[in-house]
Amino acid sequence: MALQNIGGNSDDAFYRYKMPRMVTKIEGRGNGIKTNVVNMVDIAKALARPAAYTTKYFGCELGAQSKFDEKTGTSLVNGAHETAKLAGLLENFIKKYVQCYGCGNPETEILITKTQMLQLKCAACGFVSDVDMRDKLTTFILKNPPEPKKGSKEKKAMRRAEKERLKEGEAADEEQKKHKKEAKKKGTATTSLKDGTTKASSSKKKASGSDEDRTSPTHSQVDEKEEDDEDEDDDVQWQTDTSAEAAKQRIQEQLSAATADMVMLSTDEPEKKKAPNKASENGNLVARKTLTDEVKENMKKGISAKQLQSVLESLSGSAQEKMNALYEGLFDGIQKGFAKEAVKKKSYLTAAIAQDEGSQLLLLRAIEEFCGKSNTSAMKEIALVLKALYDADILEEEFIVEWYQGGLKGGNKDSQIWKNARPFIDWLQSAESESEED
């Protein structure tokens, strides 16, 4: 198919933007004669404009009736018109409704303002061109606006929906696998282990085979045997002893000798809440130090995000203290480049907020506390860190804005962390308003 340049220099063979040459066909005779633009659909795709716009433009300029059939993709203009004449009108259409008035690039999109005015926004230079509203085609475009492009907010929603669908599919697979194991399970034997856990394995009887059993097995029998072996491995279930003594024993084994004495477990619940004193504050500081050291120690071992989260859950302390310790343990000792490190360690942060949406606020407060500990570099990069976690779908817009507004209402308006975070908050709110206008 012969191609030609969309605007620009027609002799430039290496011009990036091209469209197919127009092909027309005269149909009918007498008063019913019509001109059919055979490849109007291909031309419209190259111009990124609806084929109905170009067909209507021909009718407005020629003073003839024109129609584009969406089902068949047929573009008809009443009367017999030469291809060269229609090609010239198409060039005028490109100059008015496709090319940027600033740089001449055809990579533009049509915008309709609140005052019902047409504009062309260029994706190359960002220039916004005002279309002459005296042209007849503008009325048709206002009545038949182009389909809006999906914004970043809709794309995020689609990604979240896709993640939810995958989670539901995995849960269904696990449920089906569980039913399959229960159907084949005949008995369980419980074996006590040293560390306070119990192992349940299915007991299967081995019977002596006959002469027929000693023959070579068929393919189906081999497959069944492999499937039984896999199920036998899957039937092993691990149950953790959650008693106070077992938990204390595990903690002492995991922690080093220097930190083991700092953790104290007690099964006696106080009947009345006591007023906070210096001793309790020192206890919180020691517990936080213990949690932070625990995170650092396990990170050196190279454990996974889920394993680190389970270790934190086994220790005492509030949810906020654990989140503070997690963030401090992940980023302590880093001098600069906190945004890049946040992307590298997003698996740990994702696991930390997976249980509850409210955990996002806990994470934001942990970032706030970490930056407030005289960490100048982290304070300067707070906006970059928030942007990185937002792009990675770890933090959502509503929680970020809620955290920021709550910090301003707390009476710390002049705090440096809010001043540094404000550019990102302004960008979030402006992006939301632009998507709503579109």
SSE topology:
Elements: E1 3-5, E2 18-20, E3 24-27, E4 34-37, H1 40-47, H2 51-62, E5 66-69, E6 74-78, H3 83-97, E7 108-112, E8 118-122, E9 128-130, H4 137-143, H5 152-184, E10 188-192, E11 198-202, H6 219-234, E12 237-239, H7 244-254, H8 257-260, H9 278-301, H10 305-314, H11 319-331, H12 338-344, H13 346-352, H14 359-372, H15 376-380, H16 382-391, H17 397-409, H18 416-437
Antiparallel strand pairs: 1-2, 3-4, 4-6, 5-6, 7-8, 8-9, 10-11, 11-12
Domain W2: 281-438
GO molecular function: eukaryotic initiation factor eIF2 binding; GDP-dissociation inhibitor activity; GTP binding; translation initiation factor activity
Protein name: W2 domain-containing protein
Could you describe the 3D structure shown?
The protein has 438 residues and is an alpha+beta fold. Among the domains are: 105 residues, Defensin A-like (2-Layer Sandwich); 169 residues, Serine Threonine Protein Phosphatase 5, Tetratricopeptide repeat (Alpha Horseshoe), CATH 1.25.40. The protein has 18 helices and twelve strands. The strands form four sheets. It has a four-stranded antiparallel sheet, with helices on one face. The longest helix has 33 residues. About 10% of the residues have low confidence. One of its GO terms (cellular component) is cytosol. Keywords: GTP-binding, Initiation factor, Nucleotide-binding, Protein biosynthesis. GO terms for molecular function: eukaryotic initiation factor eIF2 binding; GDP-dissociation inhibitor activity; GTP binding; translation initiation factor activity.
